C-alpha cells in the first residue's frame, strides 16, 4: 500500500478559550476586567501538531473524536482552512475544550474540561489501521483514548512518537505512551532530574530518541545512548505566549527525522520552531513554514554540547 500520508496525528483535537490575565498565579478577586478580550478558537495539542506539520510541507492526516457541537464546527473549520485532512469520529460527549489563562510573560495555566470523554471511548480499529498503513509515521497525543491504539500501531510496523507534556515521571497514565513510542517528547518543567527520567523511558520502553524541552534553557536530547544539550534559539520577535511551543518543537523535529536528518539537527529544527511559536498569540493559529525554518537553521547551527 502506498504511504501517501507523511504523518498521521491521533487525538488532541479541541477548542481553547484564551484569557490574558495580569499575572500568574492569579490572585483571588471578585472580578477582573480583560481589556484584551476573551477569545475561543480551535487548537489543542493535536490540532497544533497537524498545523505545524502541514506548514512544514508534510502530508498530514488528523484522526480524533469530535462532537457535533459548536466547538466541533470550529475544529472542522480550522482543518478546512489549512487544508489538513481530518477524520472526525462522532463523540456524543462533545468536543474537547479548555480554558487557558496566559500571563504577561507568556506562561499559561490550562483548565481542561474532563466531562467531554467517556471511559468506553475508542477510536475505530479499522480506521486507525487503514490510516496507519498509509502513513510514514504516527504521532499519538496523550488524550484519551489514544493509548488503546498503541498495540494496533505496533502491529502495522509504523514509527510512533508521542509528547508527554509536563509529565512528572511518576503519573501512571502517561506510562503507556512513554514506553510505547519510538520517539518521546516531554517537558522538563516538572522533572527534578530530566536525564534520569529520559534514560528510564528509553530503558523500559521502545524509545530510541527522547527529547526533554526546557524552555529558555533549550532542550536535552537522548540518542544513541548519549544525552546532549541543545541550546535555545533567540525568538525572532518578542515572546507573547508559550502555548503550542512544544507542539511546534515536535513537528519540526519530525520534519527533520522524515527528511533523514540527524537527531541533533532535528532538535535544532525543533528549537527554532518552538522559539517561533512563542511569538504567536494563543488567539492565532499559525506555524513556521519550511522555508522559514531552513533559513533560520542556515543562519547558525552550533553543535550540541554535553550537559
TrEMBL record:
PROSITE patterns: PFKB_KINASES_2
Keywords, sorted A to Z: Kinase, Transferase
GO molecular function: kinase activity
Domain Carbohydrate kinase PfkB: 183-286
Pfam families on file: PfkB
Gene3D superfamilies per record: 3.40.1190.20
The protein, known as: PfkB family carbohydrate kinase
Species the sequence originates in: Streptomyces griseosporeus
